[in-house]
């Protein structure tokens, strides 16, 4: 595996304040720092956790930690500091009930918090579509049953799973090393897949995304990356973190916006000149 990058945190565009963002995560989430790194100072992340459930990482746990009423209560706890957006930072909890369940979570959060709301699985799906991918390879730390539920979520959205690999873990996922994650992604990949998706916000990916993309020759997107990207994207901010394919989406959007502005200025100038010409 190539050496992980040691890139410093990214900084927000000059003159733009950080966006206060409420983050609801499961009680066993241990990678708050990675979300901060992906946000790069553009989001002021304010965390709260769902109530403790003495369960291992199973389908039952995924359903418990994503009950809309419990997530809404967590949002209410955060609403005292008036976040400008909310995000539910758990992949399994946001895909376990399918597309409809993900939308119900978003509705519960936005209603409770009176602000835009997003989820990790919704972000992964949106990012997959933004990259123009219709087929995926999938790397997860879960067991076969939860991995199958993840695949079903994407299949429901018309995204085809070509291959997958998992670690079969039922807890302490944050302890997986970069080297283990790197090899997991390599095992999961397929020539038939347009992109590789790395599921689970407890799986560290920040320092290996660029190397994986170079190694595999295709976009590799992760849960924590997508969590931050979806908030930035919907609130009109560029993503400048690791993963050149995703960062390229923001660069393309900026170039398109700049070109549109130039075209409008040219049109305004031409119109002004035509008005100034004698009849």
From TrEMBL:
It comes from the Bacteria. Residues 243-279 are annotated as: Disordered. It comes from Candidatus Nesterenkonia stercoripullorum. This is Asp/Glu racemase. Pfam families: Amdase. Residues 255-271 have a biased composition (Basic and acidic residues).
């Amino acid at each position: 595996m190539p050496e992980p990058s040691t890139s410093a945190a990214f900084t927000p565009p000059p003159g733009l304040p950080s966006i206060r963002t409420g983050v609801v995560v499961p009680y066993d989430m241990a990678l708050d720092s990675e979300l901060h790194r992906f946000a790069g100072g553009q989001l002021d992340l304010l965390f709260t956790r769902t109530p403790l459930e003495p369960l291992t990482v199973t389908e039952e746990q995924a359903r418990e930690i994503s009950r809309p009423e419990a997530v809404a209560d967590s949002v209410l706890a955060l609403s005292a500091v008036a976040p400008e957006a909310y995000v539910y930072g758990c992949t399994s909890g946001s895909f376990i009930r399918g597309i409809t369940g993900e939308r119900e979570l978003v509705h519960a959060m936005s209603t409770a918090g009176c602000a835009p709301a997003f989820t990790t699985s919704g972000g992964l799906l949106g990012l997959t579509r933004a990259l123009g991918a219709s087929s995926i390879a999938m790397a997860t730390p879960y067991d076969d049953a939860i991995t199958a539920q993840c695949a079903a979520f994407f299949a429901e959205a018309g995204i085809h799973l070509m291959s997958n690999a998992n670690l079969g873990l039922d807890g302490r996922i944050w302890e997986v090393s970069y080297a283990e994650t790197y090899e997991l992604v390599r095992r999961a990949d397929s020539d038939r897949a347009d992109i590789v998706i790395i599921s689970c916000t407890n799986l560290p990916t920040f320092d290996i995304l660029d190397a994986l993309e170079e190694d595999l020759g295709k976009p590799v997107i992760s849960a924590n990356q997508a969590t931050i990207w979806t908030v930035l994207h919907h609130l009109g901010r560029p993503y400048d973190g690791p993963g050149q394919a995703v960062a390229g989406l923001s660069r393309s959007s900026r170039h398109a916006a700049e070109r549109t502005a130039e075209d409008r200025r040219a049109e305004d100038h031409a119109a002004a000149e035509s008005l100034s010409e004698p009849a």
